[in-house]
Amino acid sequence: MLKYTVKRLLYSVLILFFVMFIIYMLMYNMPSGYVETKARELASRPGATKSYAEWLADLNAQYGMDKGVVQGYFVWLGNAVRGNWGDSWAWTIPVTQEFHNTVWYSFALGFVSFILEILIAIPLGITAARKQYSFTDYFTTVVAMVCISMPTFFVATVLKYVFSVKLGWFDLSGMQGRDYMTLSQFGKFLDVAKHFVLPLITLTIISIGGLMRYTRTNMLEVLNADYIRTARAKGVPEKKVINYHAFRNTFIPLVTMLGGTLPGLFSGALITETLFSIRGIGYASYTSMTQADIPFIMFYLAFISILTLLGNLISDLLYAAVDPRVRLS
Predict the structure, then answer these.
(1) How sure is the predictor about 327, in pLDDT bands with cuts at 50, 70 and 90?
(2) C-alpha dist (Å) from residue 160 to 78, 174, 180, 198, 275
(3) Which of 81, 129, 311, 326 keeps 20 to 30 A from 31, CA to CA?
(4) With contact defined as beta carbons under 8 Å apart, do 283 and 293 qualify?
(5) What are 260-314's pLDDT values in tens digits?
(6) CA–CA dist 123, 42 (Å, integer)
(7) Rounded to the nearest 10 degrees, what angle do helices 197-223 and 135-149 cross at?
(8) pLDDT tens digit string along 216-231?
(9) 308 within 8 A of 19, measured Cβ to Cβ
(10) Under a CB-based contact definition with an 8 Å cutoff, are residues 24 and 329 in contact?
């Protein structure tokens, strides 16, 4: 296992190297007007100590734009490895600081949604498989298909219309209420948690459908296996057949699927956070994209690449850990 893990890590580093090169090439080939606009903005600020030409030269040198693609990439990569990702043009603070300020909101939102997804989708998928072709099965299938089919913006709009506009239970957007500053520390926590309710419901609704169908399909396949029929023929109680024999083997593909989603907890929900104005990493990345914030965009793309590679590695390791039939060499 250790040898396999080290080998996969080395492969991941190699893949990341070329992925980041592609990211840099995209930035390098963007119209130079973005850099020129930023240099002009910095030079026109009150108390600016550098001229437009000096700012333009500094920005080009910082990202290796004054060199060729290959040499410039290694300049940028060297700064990135040392943790120097530059200052965000949209947020006017270091990129890593803006990342630290926003990523934990996204993690809280994603983690709670992830737990709710597991608690809702997996039991419903197992129940639908146990009662195949019953009303419960048909109802669960319809609910799953509806959740899969509905886009995020539609779910968010309906929830905001019902619970914010009509009922007035929640604010339309934002993370704080009007009296936030007058509340105690616990009151502030409850106020922020209240603003997270609708985004959590949105993320849960759009995510449970796929996991529900996946669980049902795998459970049906296991229930039709020979060893399940043998267990029933030997008089094993149905509850033990389902919860012990069947679910353990259904859990194998589920673990690999869920393992790949764990790093996504840190990547943020771009559409949901933007619709509800939640200051997470997804909202920050969207705002940076609309304002051509090249430093933050490059950092975010590299961050997503790392999470994707990490998710694939976690899935492979979990698969080997939960399935004794798999041997890694």
Answers:
(1) low
(2) 45, 12, 21, 8, 10
(3) 81
(4) no
(5) 776 777 777 788 888 898 888 988 988 888 887 888 888 998 888 888 888 888 8
(6) 56
(7) 130
(8) 988 888 888 888 888 8
(9) no
(10) no
Residue with tokens 């939102």: 109
Tell me the sheet residues that pair with 139: none
Q: Is 163 exposed, middle or buried (0-12, 13-18, 19+ CB in 10 A)?
A: middle
Q: Are 105 and 269 in contact (CB under 8 A)?
A: no
* Tokens, residue 300: 């975010």
Q: Are 137 and 228 in contact (CB under 8 A)?
A: no
What is the rounded CA–CA span in Å between residue 98 and residue 280? Answer: 10
In whole angstroms, how large is the CA radius of gyration of the chain?
A: 25
Q: How many CB atoms lie within 10 A of CB 47?
A: 4
Structure tokens at 213: 């169908």
Measured from the Cβ of residue 234, the count of other Cβ atoms closer than 10 Å reads 8
Q: Give Cα 19 distance to the centre of its chain.
A: 18
Contacts 24+ apart (CB under 8 A), 73-78: 73/20, 73/21, 73/24, 73/25, 73/28, 76/24, 76/298, 77/20, 77/24
pTM for this structure? 0.82
Phi, psi values for residue 268, rounded to 5°: 85, 155
Mapped onto helix, strand or coil, the DSSP state of residue 226 is helix
Q: What does each C-alpha distance from 250 to 116, 171, 253, 275 come to in angstroms?
A: 19, 41, 6, 36
> How much is the pLDDT for 205?
92
Please identify which residue in the block is written with the tokens 């993690």.
Answer: 107
Q: Please list the alpha-helical segments (H only) found in 49-164.
A: 52-62, 69-81, 95-130, 135-149, 152-159
Q: If we measure between CA atoms, which residue out of 9, 6, 3, 1 comes closest to residue 312?
A: 9
Residue 183: DSSP 8-state:
S
Residues found in the chain: 329
